[in-house]
Design a protein that fits this description.
355 residues, alpha/beta, Rossmann fold, 3 domains, 5-stranded parallel β-sheet, KAP NTPase domain-containing protein
Length: 355
C-alpha cells in the first residue's frame, strides 16, 4: 500500500458490556428482576427491539453482572450459529447439557441426557428426510414421546442437582432476529416443552415481528387457519416483555463520540444520529460507508466536505427516491437551499426555484 494512501479505520459490530447507550439502568432492573424472582417457577424474559437496536449489548451487560454470583449459572446461546437444516432447538438443549457436564458429579447425568437428545434429534431428522411407513411412524412417535417425557423430567432433576437452594440457571438466547422465522418458533417451542422448569430463566433477544412472522409461516405452509395470533403466542411464551425504549439523541451522540471519531467527523455527529434513527448498528455501518467514500473522494481528487457527504448519504439511505432526484442537479448550493426550505427560512424566489 502506498504511503500516501488514506488510512481507514472501520468499526466492528461486536456487542459491548460497557454502557455507552444509557442501558445501565435497564441492566440493573433486569438483574433485580432475575435475582428476586421466585425460583419455584420458570421465567422467560423477552428483550424486544428493532434489528441493531442494542439487544445483544444489553443482554451482555446483564450477563456480566452475574459473573461473581455463585448462585447463578449462565449459558449464552447464539442461535444464528446453526445452519438452516440443523434442529436448532436440540442444539440449545445440547449446549446447556454440555455446560452441566463441566460440573463435578454431573457428568454421568449430563451424558444420559445428551444421549436422549441425540436420539430425539435422530428421530426428527428421519421424519424430515425419509419416507417411512405408517407403522414405522407410529413407533417413532411413541418412542420420541417417551423420550420427551423422560428428557423434561431428567432435565429438571439435573437442574435441582446442579443449583443450590435459591440458585438460578439463566440462559441468554441471542441473534434470533437473524434466523429464519420458523427457526425462531422452533427454539421457543423447545424452551416451553423441555426447559420450562423451576429455577430456569430464559432471556430472549428477538424482535416481536419475527415471532409473528414465524407463526404465519408455520401455518401458511400447512394451509391451515392460524389457531393463534403472533401476539397471543408471544404472551403465552414470554412472561415479561421488555421493549427497549428509543435511544435518546444525546446518548447516541455520546455513543458516536466514544467510538473514537475526531476532527471533521465531529461535525456530523447529529446528522448521523438523526439519519440512522439512533440505531447503534446502523450508526457504525453509516460511519464506515462515509469513511470509505471520503477516502475514495480524497484519493481520486474529488474531495467533498464530510458534513455534505453525510447529508447526501442520509438522503440516499432514508429517502432513496428523493436522492435520485437530488443527484441530477448540478447546483452546488442545492443542499443549503433544501435546508433553508426545511427550516422555513426562505423567500418566494427560493420556493419557486425548488417547487
Amino acid at each position: 500500500m502506498a504511503d500516501d494512501a488514506p488510512k481507514i479505520e472501520i468499526f466492528g459490530d461486536s456487542p459491548t458490556t460497557e454502557d455507552g447507550l444509557g442501558f445501565d439502568d435497564y441492566a440493573d432492573i433486569l438483574l433485580e428482576l432475575i435475582g428476586n424472582f421466585d425460583v419455584r417457577s420458570p421465567l422467560t424474559i423477552g428483550i424486544h427491539g428493532r434489528w441493531g437496536s442494542g439487544k445483544t449489548s444489553l443482554m451482555r451487560m446483564v450477563e456480566a453482572k452475574f459473573e461473581d454470583d455463585e448462585g447463578v449459572k449462565t449459558v449464552w446461546f447464539n442461535a444464528w450459529a446453526y445452519g438452516r437444516d440443523e434442529p436448532i432447538g436440540l442444539a440449545l438443549l445440547q449446549q446447556i447439557l454440555n455446560e452441566f457436564q463441566k460440573e463435578e458429579g454431573l457428568k454421568e447425568k449430563g451424558m444420559e441426557l445428551l444421549e436422549n437428545v441425540v436420539e430425539l434429534g435422530t428421530d426428527v431428522f428421519l421424519r424430515k428426510t425419509t419416507a417411512i411407513t405408517l407403522e414405522e411412524a407410529k413407533y417413532h412417535f411413541k418412542s420420541s414421546t417417551e423420550i420427551k417425557s423422560t428428557l423434561r423430567k431428567d432435565f429438571k432433576a439435573t437442574i435441582d442437582e446442579c443449583l443450590q437452594d435459591g440458585g438460578r440457571l439463566v440462559v441468554f438466547i441471542d441473534d434470533l432476529d437473524r434466523c429464519l422465522p420458523e427457526k425462531t418458533i422452533e427454539i421457543l417451542e423447545v424452551m416451553k416443552l423441555f426447559l420450562d422448569v423451576p429455577k430456569c430463566i430464559f432471556v430472549v433477544g428477538v424482535e416481536k415481528e419475527v415471532i409473528e412472522k414465524g407463526i404465519e409461516v408455520r401455518y401458511k405452509s400447512k394451509e391451515q387457519k392460524m389457531p393463534i395470533s403472533g401476539q397471543d403466542y408471544i404472551e403465552k411464551i414470554i412472561q415479561v416483555p421488555f421493549v427497549l425504549p428509543p435511544i435518546r439523541e444525546d446518548d447516541m451522540a455520546t455513543f458516536i463520540e466514544n467510538l473514537g471519531i475526531g476532527g471533521r467527523e465531529k461535525g456530523y455527529v447529529k446528522i448521523v444520529a438523526k439519519g440512522t434513527g439512533c440505531n447503534p448498528r446502523k450508526v457504525k455501518m453509516f460511519l464506515n460507508i462515509l469513511r470509505i467514500r471520503q477516502a475514495i473522494a480524497e484519493k481520486t481528487g474529488g474531495g467533498i466536505e464530510p458534513d455534505l457527504s453525510a447529508k447526501l448519504f442520509v438522503f440516499e439511505y432514508v429517502f432513496p427516491e428523493f436522492y435520485k432526484d437530488v443527484v441530477k442537479y448540478t447546483d452546488q448550493d442545492l443542499l443549503c437551499k433544501l435546508e433553508r426550505l426545511a427550516k422555513r427560512d426562505f423567500d418566494e424566489e427560493l420556493e419557486e426555484e425548488l417547487g
